[in-house]
């Protein structure tokens, strides 16, 4: 309320008028419509948990998931040891050398240099400003939400 217009007599008059209003009565069709809507929502199996889906749909889901997994893995022979050993040896070689990190950093640096050389300074400034503002907004909103969450926890 506005403290400039604090009138106890007006407040008591409004309170009396509101208390004198008759009780609101819900329409007769409210309960049947609500129950019908609840029944319709319960009939939609996609919105329920997986354990309550019909058994035929769960079985079809499992079959399709296994088929997609089998199609993703390059054949069942990929699980044989003689095929996995060379793959892991190659991955070990890549992980042991740090050359790929240097190559990636060099490529990113050259791409950044090309962007700076070919784009207008206004666009670059706008992009940097947008990134800084987005970062500041994330920090600000995060701080506000943490403070709100902690203040609610203290109240409870």
Strand content: under 5%
Catalogue the unreliable spans.
Answer: none
- The residue-averaged pLDDT reads 79
Query: In angstroms, what is the radius of gyration?
Result: 33 Å
Measured distance between first and last alpha carbons: 26 Å
Strand runs, count: 0
Based on Cα principal axes, name the global outline.
Answer: flat
Number of helices: 6
Biggest sheet overview: none
Please provide the ordered H/E string of secondary-structure elements. Answer: HHHHHH
Find the structural class using helix and strand composition.
mainly alpha
Helix proportion range: over 70%
Write the layout of secondary structure elements.
Layout: H1 8-20, H2 30-43, H3 55-72, H4 81-96, H5 99-118, H6 121-155
Report on the structure:
This protein has 156 residues and is mainly α. The chain contains six helices and no strands. The protein has helices spanning 8-20, 30-43, 55-72, 81-96, 99-118, 121-155. The longest helix is centred in the last third of the chain and has 35 residues, at 121-155. The chain is flat, with a radius of gyration of 33 Å. The chain starts with 7 loop residues before the first helix and ends with a helix. The model has no long low-confidence stretch (mean pLDDT 79).
Précis, in short:
This protein is mainly alpha-helical. The protein is built from six helices and no strands.
Write a concise keyword list for the protein shown above:
single chain; 156 residues; mainly alpha; 6 helices; 0% strand
């Amino acid at each position: 309320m506005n403290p400039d217009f604090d009138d106890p007599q007006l407040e008591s008059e409004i309170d009396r008028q509101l208390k004198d209003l008759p009780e609101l009565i819900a329409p007769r069709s409210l309960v049947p419509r609500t129950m019908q809507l609840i029944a319709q929502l319960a009939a939609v199996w996609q919105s329920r948990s997986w354990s309550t889906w019909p058994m035929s749909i769960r079985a079809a889901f499992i079959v399709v998931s296994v088929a997609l997994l089998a199609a993703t893995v390059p054949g069942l022979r990929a699980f044989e040891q003689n095929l996995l050993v060379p793959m892991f040896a190659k991955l070990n070689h890549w992980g042991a050398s740090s050359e790929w990190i240097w190559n990636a950093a060099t490529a990113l640096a050259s791409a950044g240099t090309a962007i700076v050389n070919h784009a207008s300074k206004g666009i670059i400034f706008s992009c940097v400003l947008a990134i800084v503002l987005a970062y500041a907004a994330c920090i600000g909103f995060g701080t506000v939400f943490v403070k709100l969450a902690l203040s609610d926890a203290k109240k409870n």
